[in-house]
Amino acid sequence: MVNPTASGFTLERSNIPGVVLAGGRSSRMGRDKAGVALSGRTLLDRVIEQLSQQVISVAVNADTVPDRCDRPFIPDIIPGKAGPMAGIHAAMAHGARLPRVTHVVTVSVDSPFFPHDLVDWLAAAIDTPAKIAIATSEGRSHPVFGLWPVALANDLESWIATDEKRSVRDFLLRHDVAEVAFPLRPTRASLLDPFFNVNTPDDLAEAERWMKVLT
Ligand SMILES: Nc1nc2c(ncn2[C@@H]2O[C@H](COP(=O)(O)OP(=O)(O)OP(=O)(O)O)[C@@H](O)[C@H]2O)c(=O)[nH]1
Ligand SMILES: [Mg+2]
């Protein structure tokens, strides 16, 4: 899909690589979330499969190599479990090495229900080369689900080096950002926030309950 805009910028939907952010401490889960099984399949496998239907390639990013991963691995360039922004930085740097790529999409390993049309809708919101698009639901933003200009890698690297909080939102304030609102997902029970994320063992139990009512 091509998205021509009034500004003349065209984002080639067919040339967007995807990166799964799978690093961090998993301190609330107590073990590596990427390897946690939901209805018999790991969160990492589920998210890779879901993303691979929307992008030209899928790579896995973390600060250390995950167990059992058959996709290209992209290590954090900024060391020390610096947080999700370190993963987004590694994703931008990865995209910048690929031919004709202007934007890279990131998703979080702990959100197994993210939208099937995530990349289409984020891409539709990009109308200049420097624009970032991030997902929102119910008025809350989910910046780990973002479409990022690969040209921002150096800017993000220097920002991480100078900012103590390393909050994604603080970085976004410095840039041109489109927020893309996604609807709640109907199930046979109530409405599911597609960005529900599995941070704790209780969240995992809740995710198992959602699995039983997905349509
Ligand atoms: N590459 C990379 N990804 C990270 C890092 N920290 C967090 N993430 C990813 O960012 C996303 C959101 O992470 P959180 O759920 O907020 O935190 P977490 O570190 O995974 O877990 P907690 O320790 O329980 O907060 C997940 O996809 C994580 O895998 C990091 O230092 N490097
Ligand atoms: Mg989380």
UniProtKB/TrEMBL annotation:
Keywords, alphabetical: Cytoplasm, GTP-binding, Magnesium, Metal-binding, Molybdenum cofactor biosynthesis, Nucleotide-binding, Nucleotidyltransferase, Transferase
MobA-like NTP transferase domain residues: 18-175
Binding site for Mg(2+): 110
EC number: 2.7.7.77
Family the UniProt entry places it in: Belongs to the MobA family.
Subunit record text: Monomer.
Protein name (record): Molybdenum cofactor guanylyltransferase
